[in-house]
Amino acid sequence: MAGTSKYFGTPDQQALERRADLLWQIVKGDPRYSCHGRAVALIERGADDVGLQIALARMQGVAPAPRLTPEVMQSRKTAIEDAGLVTDVYEHWSSDVSAIPIAKELLARRALPVELTVQEVGADTTDDDYKNLDALTQSCGVLLPASNFLCGSERPAVCLYAKTAEGEAVGVAAAIVENPPSSSEAYRAWWGMLSTSEHWRGRGIAKLLGAMAMVALVGRHKVQFFGTGIRPGNTESAKLCEGLGFSPSGLLDLMAIDPITMSGGRMTK
Questions:
Q1: pTM of the full predicted structure?
Q2: Which parts of the chain register pLDDT below 50?
Q3: What distance separates the 2 farthest-apart alpha carbons in the chain?
Q4: Three-state DSSP class for residue 23
């Protein structure tokens, strides 16, 4: 529920998440929209639906539209920029349940460093843990979704983080079923937010947590596909995703951004 949610990132990003959370309480029964806790997205994919995306951007600050064909993306991009907004584009990578054996095989042959423990965000997650997760993701240029989505109270979700004995969060990953049950895409989940503290990088922590999140979500819910956005040229993320069975879908995720409300020009890395 929006009244008890925690919001993260910069002040602009926190305000975005709060607006999105409040809007989601109104539209979450409408199969045209989805949300994983950052911004309400439009999943109507026609070129003529651009007016809804522009309105969403002006209302929230950012309006994602995932999995567009290149032709529709270009048409919408032109219309959005003509309306005085700015755009950001990610390549959409996806996997199906065939990625689960890959994830399980990885987990069978590799383990997290022994000095780390894995915890799942839930009803008992403390304010200090949320603050640590927020600091971690911000240090990696990633926006932590609102707490009611991370803990699964709004939509089915698994958010796992690795923690030291001193209480420091050093790695995190999540998977969230972002589409409403009435949607024809209710079986799809957003996956990502992979972040690792700088001094723990190179040990596969985020990849292992990402694999754990996929396996756990499929085990609990009827998820058939995972999707994530990768900025063109981000070869490190692409390599990590390939190692977990993801591949480019040929589709694109288009963000419409209000440059006044979101002065930073982007929602997340």
A1: 0.94
A2: none
A3: 54
A4: helix
Contact between residue 64 and residue 34 where contact means Cβ atoms under 8 Å apart: no
Structure tokens, 158? 């698994």
List all residues 6 or more positions away from 175 whose beta carbon is below 8 Å from its beta carbon: 157, 158, 159, 189, 190, 191, 213, 214, 216, 217, 223, 226
Residues forming beta bridges with residue 9, ordered by sequence position: none
From 186, 177, 172, select the one nearest 143 (Cα to Cα): 172
- Count Cα atoms within 13 angstroms, Cβ side, for 196: 18
User: Which amino acid would we find at residue 221?
Assistant: H
Structure tokens at 257: 């951004």
**Cβ–Cβ under 8 Å, residues 20 and 9:** no
Residue 269 burial by CB count (10 A; 0-12/13-18/19+): exposed, middle or buried?
Answer: middle
> Per residue in 170-200, is it b (16+ CB within 10 Å) or e — as a string?
bbbbbbbbbbbeebebbebbbbbbbbbbeeb
Q: One-letter amino acid identity for 5?
A: S
Is the distance from CB of 62 to CB of 256 less than 8 angstroms?
yes
